[in-house]
Amino acid sequence: MTRETDVWAQLGTVNDPELDESVTELRFVTEVAVSDAGAVRVSFRLPTYWCAANFAFLMAEDMRLAVAALPWVTDVQVTLGEHMYADTINSGIAEKQSFQTTFGDASDGDLEEVRRTFLVKAFQRRQVALVEHLQAAGHEMEALASLSIAALRRLSDTGLVERYLDRRRIVAVNADDAPAFVDDNGCAIEADSFRSHIRALRRVAVNVEFNGALCRGLLAARFDEAEDKTREPTLRDFIHALPAEKRHSL
Questions:
Q1: Phi and psi (nearest 5°) for 206?
Q2: Secondary structure of 142-167 in HEC code, one letter for each residue
Q3: Which of 69, 145, 162, 165 could form a disulfide with 191 if both were Cys (CB 3.0 to 4.6 A apart)?
Q4: 56: closest CA among 103, 10, 17?
Q5: How far apart are CA 154 and CA 148, in angstroms?
Q6: What is the mean pLDDT of each run of 10 residues along the chain (250 residues)?
Q7: Assign residue 240 a region: left if phi > 0, alpha if psi is -120 to 50, beta otherwise?
């Protein structure tokens, strides 16, 4: 494995906080360069010129920290391009400043609270995906409500289980005897309310899926790139139907 491959692997662990998808899978990262001395330069982009500054800062900071964790790295430079706050964000990341320090009075709220809010949404989305997968495999929804984490792991060895449990730890401790399916307060869900609980969470999942489709479509249209054929059709066709001056201003 080359050093550049190491860096791409680390970047693959960084998610867009709103979409719960890797910044590499979303094709946000455009360049990785590694010097002989171990200095790393990462360039990335976002679907629009006005994507939320707090999300952009979170991703840039997470990328810097992920790459800096590699033992041979001596320096990391993360650069956001073509964004209305690019200069401010790039300067803050280079100086290792917080979002509040970087944006001063213009910062709005605690960035860690924002991060947790979207981690909880990701937990909810992954819970829906796992439950629907288990239902499709023939398991009764009410029976799933009583599963412990150990029982869930015995029931299915799909990657969806570990992916779900990775986000479950945001709301509760992942002990073997703990209930597998909990609400966003970490409390077990009763069997007679499990179906309505999952139904309510589907709204969160649908919103995340829609935002993901929108962002992929905007990115492809903005940079005039080929559509990712491995995914379902996105909004790209709709966006390309816009007048050229509107598409180029995205």
A1: -65, -40
A2: HHHCCCEHHHHHHHCCCHHHHHHHHH
A3: 145
A4: 17
A5: 10
A6: 94 94 94 97 95 94 98 97 95 94 83 91 94 92 93 89 95 96 95 94 86 86 73 46 48
A7: alpha
46/51 Cα distance (integer angstroms): 7
In the Cβ-directed half-sphere of 41, how many Cα atoms lie within 13 Å?
8
pLDDT of 227 reads 60
Residue 203 is encoded by which pair of tokens? 């709204």
Task: Report the distance separating Cα 219 and Cα 21, nearest Å.
Answer: 14
Cβ-count burial of 138 within 10 angstroms (0-12 exposed, 13-18 middle, 19+ buried)?
exposed
Q: Contact 44/23 with Cβ under 8 angstroms?
A: yes
C-alpha 34: how far from its chain's center?
25
* Residue 224 confidence (pLDDT): 82
So what's the pLDDT on residue 222? Answer: 87
User: CA torsion angle for 200, 163, 56, 203 (degrees, to 10)?
Assistant: -10
Looking at residue 151, its pLDDT comes to: 96
Please give the pLDDT value at position 247. Answer: 44
